What does this fold into?
Amino acid sequence: MLHFKTGIGWKACYDDERNLYTAKTSWRGDYHLYEIDEEIFNRLDQPGEDPDELISSGRHLYYSQDSPIGPPTDMVIDENYAALCPWVEIQKSGNVMPSELTDVAVDLWENEKTRGQRKEQRKAGTREQ
It folds into this structure.
């Protein structure tokens, strides 16, 4: 059985037969699929939590972009994204990024996330002094 939580711009699913938690976010042409864990799923509807931030801390599976600043593009990060998220109607542009470029993009995202974390740690360190 599938159990859902929904909010503005996001939806999460717990599949109790597969013990699998997944989620999608979408906003202004950006569309993402993630595998999340039980802790994230349980925190999604809690006051004071940012669902987009929680979901995006999960494992990124798929990304589709349809914005005015470039051609619509799909990025397949995990080839099993459709099997992992059978409950969702997947946004597809028909223009799939080659896997080599996907690898580069994922590396950039990870570096950006790490850079952001270091920046926050530096800010926190300055406030403590």
Observations:
- The mean pLDDT is 85.
- The first strand starts at residue 2 and ends at 7.
